[in-house]
Each structure stands twice: as structure tokens, then as C-alpha cells.
Amino acid sequence: MATSEIELTINGHLQRLSLDPRTSLLDMLREHLALHGTKKGCDQGACGACTILLDGKRINSCLTLAVMHNGAHITTIEGLANGAELHPLQAAFIEHDAFQCGYCTPGQIMSGVACLAEGHAASPEQIKAWMSGNICRCGAYPGIVSAITQTANASR
Amino acid sequence: MNAIGRPLPRVEGAAKVTGAARYAGEFDQPGQAHAVIVSATVGLGRIAAIDVATAQTLPGVLAVISHLNAPKLAYSPHKGFIDPAHGERLHVFQDDQIRFFGQPVAVVIADTLDQAEHAAAAIHVDYAARTPELRIEGVETLPAGGSHASAYKARGDADAALSQAPVKVDAVYRIARENHNPMEPHATIAAWDGDRLHLWSKSQFVTNEQVEIAAVFGLPADHVHVTCPFIGGAFGTALRTWPHVTIAAIGARHVNRAVKLVLTRRQMFYTTGHRPRSMQRVALGAGTDGKLSAIVHEGTAETSRYEQFVEALTTITSYLYSCPNVRSSHGLAPTDTSTPTYMRAPGEASGVFAVECAMDELAGALNMDPVSLRLLNEPSIDEGENRPFSSRSLKDCIEQGAARFGWSRRDPRPRAMRDGRLLIGWGMATATYPAFHAPAGARACLHGNGPAEVEAAASDMGPGTYTSMTQVAADALGLPPEHVLFQLGRSDFPRTPPHGGSMTMASVGSAVQAACLAVRAKAVQAAIADARSPLFGAAAADIDAADGSLFVKSEPARRETYATIAARHGSIEAEATCSPDEDARKRFSMHSFGAVFTEVAVDPDLGIVRVRRAVGAYGCGRVINPRLARSQCTGGMVGGIGMALMEQTLLDPRDGRPVNASMADYLVPVNLDVNELDAIFVEEDDPHVNALGVKGVGEIALTGIAPAIANAVYHATGKRVRALPIRIEDLI
Q: Do B183 and A39 touch (CB under 8 A)?
């Protein structure tokens, strides 16, 4: 199958890619760019493990094809910290033990960053509702809510 | 300051929040190809024909492998700790028989994942299909044999006592099939180097995967190397080595390249185990005072046609309460489906559900508080084994949990408590799980530079093995935890038991402690024998360790750091193996206990159940890291909410197809389903279980929560639902 050329800015770096048009944004990250931080949990948009920011908005990267996003800006979990300095939500996840196995964690954090930016973190109830697209099978939800609440309070 | 007992944050936390932690399918190899499995679309029969003509011509396709061209594999006899004692594992691609829906029938290897997925969809398989047997009720059952002889227990005459009991309850409880559904799908990358095979593979038991794959391919065990530093959840599904691991290795050998194989979420419902469907009859007889006089517990669970999977469905019954007449049994219903496997608190979670719901029904029949009924029947010894408990804190758990929950404010009448139009129910249940301990090894090494290195072939599927082992090692060595590097997940590390059964801390922790004490003793010997050391000439017994230094207890100024000793002497290494104290295990019955209290709100018109809060109080020996143990317990409560109200894998009766094999249709709790969860640990000092005094946390956290919710639903609505999950339609 003929490949398509696209340009994407990923975590601040411009990338030129030649991709099979069938390649999802998620598989592009994991299989073509070795950015394994974005996880594949279901490949059906049902679990949220693949959540990334596309032009500032959170999306399930398994549900969209890479070639549809020529020129887009993407942020993944690898692009969140400032060098060795963790993003406040990353630090809060550690502090509140907001994960166990860690596999849903990148998606939770990216979703949490967006939840904060959207203004959907005004209360634990609101956070729970707006974070319910990200499944955590270990059941670390209380820690996730605490970590987002703390980060929201710190930025107010 | 001791590291044990401190709520340290996870040592691997930064790796997990930055995406740096690498899971099995992320160890990309040079020249790696991608494999996609084609799964059977009938439930029983044989493959009549496979048409691969189109698939083979598609761009990038390197090979299509099925029973027609797969190598005949050795499949040498091997039964690991976690394999069913009776039956034989599925031999993949070795014949044309279809034993269950979803069985692998072919694999496509291609340059890219997209190419492999496309080609897999282009393969056409013709089947001669028959209708599979899926029923577990109304069919002939087999007695459960194997290692679970304790499934059959009898003392006194339970049936006679039951018939004479003035108060009795007798009911059947059913639990749906559940799938583990960890967030990380099973994944294996296989790479051959001559006749040596390296697997990066999701596994809770890397040393067993090594031996199993060696047996499948007829290789010496040391020709197989398995690596798995991180597990994205497993809950038991990664204990056994399933067919896809063999398929990845077949594929890699066939195309002479490294091959990556990741199961789809749908395939996670086919060949990687499940909690078996079960039905249990529990009959309780009691005097009018509430004292139990009879317990009958008859369980039946599904297994496959080719293996007899047995779990601890009825083993809790003999020791949970005081009762002179007890009979338990466990039957298996062979079905044309894949073999079930261990899933968090395997057997106990199901058995506790039935027994604890029955106890709630008995409390109702007696007009007695459910807490009082349990306290009244508290035994002084394990009456099944006729020996004392090494420790049993159930009474403390019930009392402290009830106090924290506010149980004394409960109105005992069903449908009596309300919040506006919502029906409020308060329920409770006992939790229990055995304190297992199995032989394990560990190695410790002190260097002139850098942290002390400690390693074992253990796993960390999320409980925090990396962190808690670091704490154990730090205290044994007298080092701050940040100067310890604990590594796990490699089959060439000292052997450990499976990462399951809540035995990792008891087993691996004891070995880590022993290895660290051994290497510390070697460092002491090196220092006191060396004229250049300030410790020269001191007696070994007079040396203590703290803050990274060895020192003479009576003259603390005479001290030297490990680093200095190791720099002069060269790295110092010791390995230790630690086995359970069999004498203590013969003298004592060893179990964890807990009590779980829940509040539910039920919408009387819509039947929607919300778990508003849960309190669990647990007596599980020493807690190494309260932060992590608490997370395990609250995480178990979330799993229990799923078990009680959501989780079920439904099979199409026509062909055995799991009809809801996706994360959208197999419901698990999401953030909005979880409210206040509280876990407390009852102080418990058990000198008999193991050197660390730990009993494990992972499994007990799941037992108790589902029956506590079911009992709360009864209290809220007056409707006794005896089948999990409790559905909206059960309540309207």
C-alpha cells in the first residue's frame, strides 16, 4: 500500500513521517516512533490508556488515523515533564499513589492535564465524571481524584 | 530509622508517570516483524480447510502458519506450580481440532502491524462445526481432585445436624464467569539466537515461562531467557504460559526474525484464562441462640474439556466459623471452552461470597445482628485442621471496622433506611485468605560504588514489589532505601514462586532479607579480617549496621561504610534461598482475616445500585508499606464492586462465543463508580508465619467486598439476589 507523507510536531519536535494510511495515531507513536509511553489497552476507544493531547485536546489516539492529522501538534506523556522536573500532576500522582501497575497511568495523566485545562476539576464529583473515560483496573481512582484535586487547588 | 513500616512512595513511580517504564511488548528488537493470530469462529469441531492464498500475496506478509505447516513441537511433560494437575495443556497448531471458540487456528507474520492485521482478516477458514457443551448445571460433574483435596472436608454429620436444626437457611448462589481484563494485553516479543530463545513476555512467573517454553520446544531450560520488568496488571492471567507465547516463538523461528505478538482485547477473552462460572449450595443450621450446628457447602465450577482447573472454592468453609458438623465438596463441569485460571483470590472470593451471604440470611432468620452472629461463632482454633491459628484477628477486625463504619447506627429492618427517595442498605461480610509461603531465592551484591543490588526472579504487577523489597533489603543491610536497587522479572535471577496467592512478600521478602543478611555477614567478615579496616579484630557478633556503615556496637566510632569495604575487597555477593518453616506450618493454621462494611444506595424505580462507601479492616500480619497496602486494599474493593455489580463474560449458547469481549461491553468500575473507600490494618504480630511476620494483602482485599455489597442490597431493598453480578433487572 502506498505510504503518505505527513508532518507532525510531537512533544515540541517536528517529525516528518512516511506512513501506511491505515496506521492509527497510537500505532504511529508506539510502533514507528518508539514512544511507548502511550499505551494500547483495547484499541477500541473504550479504556483511555492511549489518551494524548492533539492540538491541546485529549483524544483516544487509537481511534484516529495518523494521516488525518498532518500539521498537528501532539503531546504525549514523554513530553510532559520539563527535563527532570515533573509536571505537577505527575508529581501528584506519585504523592497520592494514584496508580499501581502503571499501565493506564500515562493516559490518566494526559486526561487529567486536559481535565484541568478544560476547567472540569472544580470538585471531586466533577473530576470523577470527567475522568471516567480512563479505566484503571487496579482501582486507583481515589488517588487519581486526590492528585487532580491537589493540582487544581495549587493552580488556583 | 527502619524502612519497613514507612509509607514510602513507589520507587518506580517516576518511571511510571513519565512513560519510561517498559512493559513486555515495548522491548522492540532490530528487524522485528509483527504477528497477528487468527482465532476460531466456531465453538467445537475441526478445521475443514484454510484458504491463505489471498493473505500470502498481500504486501509485507512473510508467513502464514497453521496446523498445516507448523512444526511438530515436543510438548514435553511439564506441570508448573500453577498448571492444573489433571489434563494436558492446549497444543497449538498441532492438529485440526477446535476445542473452544477463539482457539488460535493460524498466525500471520508481516513486516508491519497494519499488514499483519489486514492479512489475518483475509484468511478464510472452513469448519466442520458442532454445538459445544457450555452448561454447568444439569450436567454430569467430575469430583475436583488434584492438590485441592481440602475441597472435600467433613466433620460430624452435617446433613443430619441440618435436618434437626431449629433455624436453617439453604440456598444456591451463582457467580458469572469473569475475565481479568488487566489494562495491558498479553504481549510477547520472541527472538531466537541459534537454538537459544529470548522472550520479552508478560508474565507473573518468568521462571515457569522459561521452563514451560523449553518443554514445549524440547530445549534445555537454560536456552530460554524470559524478561518482564513491568506488568500492566494481571490479577492471575499472566501466571500460566498461554498459547500465544509459543506462537510468537514459532513465528520468530519461521521467519528468522524477532516477532512481536500482542493479543487483541477480544483475544484476551479466549485463551488467557478466566474466573470460572460457579454455582454453590450453602446450607446453614443453627440453634435459636445463633450457634452454628451445621454447614453444608457444595460447589460446582466450569472447567475445560482438556484440563481440570480446580480452585479453592470451598476450602474456607472448614475454618471460618466454629461448627461441629461441616461438609464441603467441589465438583467440576467440563465444558467446550478454554481452561479457567486463577483470578485474584481464586476460589476464596467466590466461596466467601456464598458463605457470607448465607450467614446474612441466617442472621435474618434468627433476627440477629449480622455482626453479632459472626462474633458468636468465632472459633478458638481451626476446627477443620484441629490446630490453633498462628494469629486470627477477625474479632478485632469486625469491632474496629464496625466502629469506623458506624454500624451501631444501623436500623436492622430491610428498606428501613432512606435518603430521600433512595433506599439505603448497610451490609457486612467476613474476608479471609490463606497466608501462603513458598521457597524463594534472592541475590544481594555490595559494590564500592553505587547502590547495593538485590535481585530475584519475582514480579511486580502493581502491588509495589519494587518498593517493598527495597524496604526489606534496606533494613537487613542497614542502608537507606535510596541506596538499594532491587531488580526483578528475569528468569536468570534466583528462582521465586509465582507472583500470586498473596505470597510474594512472605516468600521473596524472606529470601531478600536472608540474602541481605548473608551479604552483610560477608562484609563483616571481610572487614574484621582486614588490618586496613577500623573494624579489624572485632568479633562479628559485636558488629551492627546502620546508615550504610558497619560499626562496633560498644565503640560506635569504629565504623566503615559498605562502599569502602567493597571498594577495597571487591564487590561482595551472596545468594540465599528461604523456605517455609514446615514445622510451624504443621502446628498452626495460617490465614488472614478481615471484615468489610458497605453502604449502598438503590434507586427504587430504576434499580441502580451505587456503593457509597466501604470500610475494610484487615488483620494480615505486619504491613511493610502502609501506603501501598492501603492502595492494594482499596483497589481490591474496586474489583469487588465490579464483581458484585458489573462483571460477567456472557457466552453465546450456540457457539460459546464470548459476546461481550470488549472493554466497552465487559463492564468494570470507572472513576464515577467509586466513592469513599477506607482500609484499616489491625495490629497483628504473628511470629509463626515467616521471618517478616507478613501474611499478604492482595487477595484478601477482594474477598468479602462482593458479599458485603450483596448483603447491603438486601438490607436496602428486601430482595435477596443470589447471583453475581447483581443487575438492575434483579431489583425492579
A: yes
pLDDT digits (tens, 9 = 90+) for B248-289: 999 999 999 999 999 999 999 999 999 999 999 999 999 999
**How many domains is chain A partitioned into structurally?**
2
Residues in chain A: 156
Residue pair B189/B27 in contact (Cβ under 8 Å)? The answer is yes
Task: Give the pLDDT confidence score for residue A1 in this predicted structure.
Answer: 65
Chain A: closest CA distance from residue B343 (Å): 13
Separation of first and last alpha carbons in chain A: 51
Which residues in chain A are closer than 8 Å to B463, comparing Cβ atoms? 100
Which element (helix H / strand E) includes B723?
A: strand B723-724
Nearest to B674 among A37, A94, A142 (CB): A142
Q: What is the span of the domain harbouring residue A100?
A: 88-155
Low-confidence ranges of chain B (pLDDT < 50): none
B265/A49 Cβ within 8 A: no
Do B539 and B680 fall within a single domain? no
B-chain CB neighbours of A109 within 8 Å are 17
Nearest alpha carbon to residue B631 among A86, A88, A102, A109 = A102
Whole-Å CA distances, B556 to B414, B446, B520, B536 = 67, 22, 17, 14
> Is there a single domain that holds both residue A50 and residue A117?
no
Q: Cα-flanking dihedrals φ and ψ of residue B79, to 5°?
A: -125, 110
ipTM of the complex in this document: 0.99
Residues 6+ apart with CB under 8 A from B403: none
CB contact under 8 A, A128 and B674: yes
A108 and A135 in a single domain? The answer is yes
pLDDT tens track for B176-229: 999 999 999 999 999 999 999 999 999 999 999 999 999 999 999 999 999 999
Among B residues 147-186, those touching chain A with beta carbons less than 8 Å apart: 181-185
Angle among Cα B160, B161, B167 to the nearest 5 degrees reads 130
Closest CB to A1: pick one of B12, B23, B59.
B59
At what angle are helices B705-717 and B348-366 packed, to 10 degrees?
A: 30
Point out the catalytic residue in the list B178, B307, B453, B699: B699
B10 interfaces chain A, CB cutoff of 8 Å: yes
- Give the per-residue pLDDT at B398: 98
Residues A10 and A34 in one domain: yes
Domain boundaries, position B302: 142-177+274-436+586-730
Does B74 lie at the interface with A, CB-CB under 8 angstroms? no
DSSP line for A23-62: -BHHHIIIIIS--TTS--S-SSSSS-TTEEEETTEEEEGG
In a domain, B453, yes or no: yes
CATH of the domain at A19: 3.10.20.30
User: Are residues A48 and A70 both part of a single domain?
Assistant: yes
Chain-chain contact of A46 with B663 (C-beta, under 8 angstroms): yes
C-alpha cell read off for B527: 572487614
3-state DSSP: chain A helix, strand, coil percent, rounded to 5? 40, 20, 40
Assess whether B699 carries a catalytic annotation: yes
Instruction: Please check whether residues B628 and B720 belong to one and the same domain.
Output: yes
pLDDT at B152: 77
In this structure, the answer to whether residues A92 and A72 fall within a common structural domain is: no
CA-only gyration radius of chain B, Å: 27
Residues B370, B356: Cα–Cα separation, whole Å: 10
- B11 falls within a domain: no
Note the pLDDT tens digit of each residue in A107-153: 999 999 999 999 999 999 999 999 999 999 999 999 999 999 999 99
A141 and A108 part of one domain: yes
pLDDT digits (tens, 9 = 90+) for B430-462: 999 999 999 999 999 999 999 999 999 999 999
Residue-level pLDDT at B380: 98
pLDDT grade for A2, boundaries at 50, 70 and 90: confident
